Amino acid sequence: MIDIKTGENHCEEWPDTSPCLVETTIKLISGKWKGIILYHLLDGTKRFNELRLLIPTITQRMLTLQLRELEEQKIIHREVYPVVPPKVEYSLTEFGETLRPIIVDMKQWGEKYTKEVLHIKNI
Asked: Would the pTM count as exceeding 0.90?
C-alpha cells in the first residue's frame, strides 16, 4: 500500500500492484464521513456550517478533522476570506474533481444494492 500521510510506496511488495492502488484509493476516501463530505461538495463550494446542516449527525470536531485530512490529501481546497466574522469555504480541487465519477457510481451502486439485496424500496 501507499502511505497517504508520508507518500511511502510499499506496492513493490505486491506481485501485482493493482490491488495496492485500489487499497490506496479506498483508504483515501474511507471512513464514515469523507465520502459523504465529498458527495456534498460535488454540488459546489460549501461553507462549514452548510456542511454541518447537510450532515446533521457529524460533530463539529469530526467535520473539522475530516476536512483537514481531505485538504492535506489535496482533495479539497480551503479558502479563508479576511473578513469578520471569518468566512471559510470548501471546494473540490481539480484533482478532487476526478473523484466525481467514483462518488456518483458509489451512490448508484448503493441505490441498487439497497433495493435489490436489502429490498428497501423507499430510498
From this structure: no
